[in-house]
Write a structure and sequence with these properties.
about 70% helix, alpha+beta, about 325 residues, elongated
Length: about 325
């Protein structure tokens, strides 16, 4: 929300300075005052709510600025506002591409640009006047808008990879688990659907490292993640907690279904591992679920060890 706060402060300063200009009608003057009040309210809301600041308010703020772009560039002779909006539009595209999904950004930015630019060039009131934006400005707007969206999406993707993805295996890391796992848990509560987790660790991972070195251990972890991804469903999450411990999150899945699924995945795995499962309860969070899955895993390990001991005694 830091970006939203900085943008809101900048707009507030601009709109306050804009109050000193002469307005062509009382309506535009009232709109200018309303913009100052809106920007001030946005600054206060971001400062007060911080990470709890809802994205839909940020989206409405972006829509308000885009509406001003349509009004001033397409239907106005205010040269100062036309220039400012032409400069501002690529920055709004960059801002939206950082905060919102790519589809939302494209379906918001491109239609507005596709309507406003041709209309202002061929039919708007500025055609043939000194306020005409000019072909060079139009081409610059299109280029920097598309470039801004591309850069914003690329930087966001890279930022997500560096903060939420485990560099070695490509699985989600602890941060990724917290972000996407919490979202899956909230969704399961909202729609009253089951959600299960599984905790697993490799059997004999220390021996793999001791015999083949860390490269052999790294290769085993990568191989395990590839297998888990290929054997799980599209909406399931594969996360590495650290070392050879992994968590799998199964939306719309009961504990019994997760148990069957994990047994099937284990049977086809090239590596041996142990696992435990848990299903979400009303008062659960991811940590408590993983803790129960951990206990279940060690319980099954003890049972397996006891069964092996009985088999050895019998033989």
């Amino acid at each position: 929300m830091a970006v939203t706060g900085m943008v809101a402060v900048f707009l507030l300063l601009f709109y306050v300075l804009n109050l000193g200009n002469d307005f062509s009608s009382p309506l535009f003057q009232k709109l200018a005052v309303a913009r100052v009040a809106g920007a001030l309210g946005l600054v206060i809301a971001v400062w007060w709510m911080l990470d709890r600041f809802p994205l839909w308010i940020a989206y409405l703020g972006a829509l308000a600025e885009l509406s001003a772009f349509v009004v001033f560039v397409g239907f106005s002779l205010n040269h100062e506002q036309i220039v400012f909006r032409l400069q501002e539009f690529p920055l709004i595209a960059l801002y939206m591409s950082w905060l919102f999904p790519p589809a939302v950004t494209r379906w918001t930015i491109y239609p507005i640009m596709a309507f406003t630019i041709p209309y202002s060039v061929f039919s708007g009131p500025a055609v043939g006047t000194e306020h005409q934006s000019g072909l060079l400005n139009v081409l610059s707007l299109v280029f920097f808008t598309v470039a801004g969206m591309f850069v914003g999406l690329y930087v966001k993707r890279r930022f997500r990879q560096q903060t939420q993805i485990d560099a070695l295996t490509g699985a989600l890391n602890r941060v990724g688990l917290a972000v996407r796992g919490d979202a899956a848990l909230l969704s399961s509560r909202k729609y009253r659907r089951p959600l299960a987790v599984a905790l697993l660790d490799l059997d004999g991972f220390k021996e793999i490292n001791d015999q083949g070195g860390h490269e052999a251990g790294d290769l085993a972890l990568k191989q395990l993640v590839r297998h888990l991804r290929s054997a799980t469903r599209a909406g399931d999450l594969v996360c590495r907690l650290g070392g050879d411990e992994f968590v799998l999150v199964f939306p719309n899945t009961t504990r019994g279904q997760a148990q069957v699924l994990m047994e099937r995945i284990e049977c086809s795995s090239p590596l041996a591992w142990s696992f435990g499962t848990a299903e979400a309860r009303t008062d659960d969070n991811l940590s408590t679920m993983i803790l129960r899955a951990d206990r279940d895993m060690y319980s099954s390990k003890r049972l397996r060890t006891a069964e092996r001991g009985k088999s050895a005694e019998g033989s």
